[in-house]
Design goal:
mainly alpha, 15 helices, 17 strands
């Protein structure tokens, strides 16, 4: 063998020999056999044996196979004839990059960090919950109660503001309710895209400060399972994609039935407790129906990207194959590695998922038709002094179009498609490289230019709020690409910490600016209206 390597043979199996030893970054499976080069990423070769680099995962076919290779690696260090194994008869398993690089410790056993377990160390251990593909320790009960209380207070404040402002108008001849909903819609859309970007491109080492900001931003998205980790406080409760799908279907169904139930109760109260004429009763019921349509449309609008994400994440294209040997492979959902694909249970659920895809497509189509019918064609357009009977659906959908220019009445559908593309479609396509992130950033930049050029939003402040939010999304994606660039080997830890701190400040600043602008401006305008 040595003679063959010295005679200039083209066989690369012998290229790693240095006398009777392998060169650095080579490993062997036979004590006197050929050397194999280590790949640049994933494996680390030392002392002619191979190990995993941190951030990567593999699984041996059996524990016995792992034990035999560990013994063989130790035997390679022996320089006399006291070794036990001449060759390793097993197979080195395939390796995979972990979604959260700090979750995988590497080495031969492919151990997981604390709080992580399962395939690719992508499943959260008991006492932890998942947030943006990272496992966090469960909060204490007191902190959980404070968070729930804060969410309830915020929802109550918004509900009261919307209810009290439904008749009060500001200087722009828009009601305070329309003003709040229009700006809240922009803020919600911004954080939905930001959260979707961090989820889709989870392989990027996003700063922890940004993850914290997005965590609290989940409150405005009504992403309940992200806000309230129920598995931390309910014994034996398992939260996986099956649970999320049931919650999505149940919550959307409950919204519709609760709205119908509340309307019927309100109707009975008006009929039996208040002595109103037919005209007054009809006008009062029409007003209530408008508010119910508005609330239902708002809730479905807010939760629609979350609904799409849950449905898309269960589709078979999102299944990732993990092989232990060439003949032994399993498939797991990339969004939830605790769910194994193509099992009997999965196949039952996936039938429902494909049926729900019809609903995903139907919602924007229905909304587009209603906007065209009740706004673009102005079938029910009347003077402001006239009663609203017959215009309940039009007024209920007003927050989707009232802040857009007449020629751009359809623009909210474009916004909806954009959000679904970032939060769901990119993940379905398997966007796991820097080129995908670059493409998403380019498209985001082009969309920002289109909004700046066409100026679809009439109100100047809301136009700039939308534009700043788009630029912030564009900046987040570009910073994500910078974070994917390998750190220079000769850079000191001080410089790395300084760069990390600077990136964290920039990302947190652009993400907090949006809600600060919206809150400050809206509060000022509401105060002017009251005065």
């Amino acid at each position: 063998r040595i003679h063959a390597s010295l005679s200039g043979t083209e066989n690369t199996k012998f290229a790693g020999f240095k006398g009777c030893e392998c060169l650095p970054n080579f490993y062997r499976l036979d004590r006197f056999g050929p050397c194999t080069r280590c790949p640049l990423q994933g494996l680390a070769c030392k002392n002619e044996s191979v190990r995993l680099q941190p951030g990567f995962f593999w699984k041996w076919a059996t524990n016995e196979s792992l034990s035999r290779y560990e013994e063989f690696s130790e035997d390679l260090l022996i320089t006399d004839n006291s070794y036990k194994q001449l060759t390793f008869q097993g197979v080195i398993p395939q390796f995979y990059k972990c979604p959260a690089s700090d979750a995988c410790l590497g080495d031969m056993k492919s151990s997981c960090s604390r709080g992580y377990e399962g395939p690719l160390c992508a499943v959260c251990s008991k006492g932890h919950y998942q947030l943006l593909n990272r496992c966090r320790k469960c909060p204490r009960m007191l902190w959980f109660v404070l968070q729930v209380s804060g969410i309830i207070i915020i929802i109550v404040i918004l509900a009261v503001s919307i209810f009290l402002g439904k008749r009060r108008k500001c200087a722009s001849n828009r009601t305070v309710t329309d003003l709040i909903l229009a700006r809240l819609k922009i803020v919600i859309g911004f954080y939905q895209v930001t959260s979707g970007t961090l989820n889709t491109f989870s392989y990027v080492e996003w700063p922890s400060a940004l993850l914290t900001v997005v965590y609290y931003a989940n409150m405005v998205q009504l992403n309940l399972l992200e806000i309230l980790p129920l598995q931390c406080f309910v014994h034996n409760l398992t939260i996986n994609l099956y649970t999320r799908l049931l919650l999505v279907v149940g919550s959307n169904t409950a919204i519709v039935f609760m709205a119908a139930f509340i309307y019927q109760i309100r109707k009975l109260i008006l009929i039996h407790t208040k002595k109103l004429g037919n005209a007054e009763l009809a006008e009062s019921l029409s007003s209530d129906k408008t508010q119910i349509y508005r609330v239902v449309c708002l809730l479905i609008f807010v939760t629609y990207p979350w609904t799409c994400t849950t449905i898309f994440n269960l589709l078979s294209p999102t299944c990732q194959r993990i092989c232990y040997t060439t003949d032994s492979c399993q498939y797991f959902l990339r969004a939830d590695f605790s769910v194994q694909c193509f099992t009997e249970k999965y196949n039952r659920y996936v039938i429902v998922v494909y049926l729900l895809l019809l609903l995903v497509v139907a919602i924007p189509v229905i909304v587009l038709f209603l906007l065209w019918k009740y706004h673009h064609r102005k079938v029910y357009e009347e003077a402001e002094a006239q009663i609203i009977k017959g215009r309940e659906i039009s007024n209920g959908l007003s927050f989707l179009y009232e802040n857009y220019a007449p020629k751009c009445w359809f623009w909210e559908i474009i916004e909806l498609v954009r959000k679904v593309w970032v939060t769901s479609t990119l993940f379905l396509m398997g966007a796991n490289t820097r080129s995908h992130l670059g493409t998403a950033a380019i498209i985001s930049g082009i969309y920002s230019i289109l909004v700046a050029y066409y100026k679809p939003i009439s109100d100047t402040f809301e136009h700039w709020l939308q534009l700043v939010s788009l630029i912030a999304n564009f900046a987040t994606m570009n910073v994500g690409m910078l974070l994917k660039i390998p750190t220079e080997e000769d850079s000191s830890s001080t410089l790395e910490d300084r760069d990390s701190g600077f990136v964290s400040v920039v990302l947190v600043a652009v993400n907090v600016t949006i809600i600060a602008l919206m809150t400050g401006r809206s509060s000022h305008q509401i105060l002017l209206t009251k005065s």
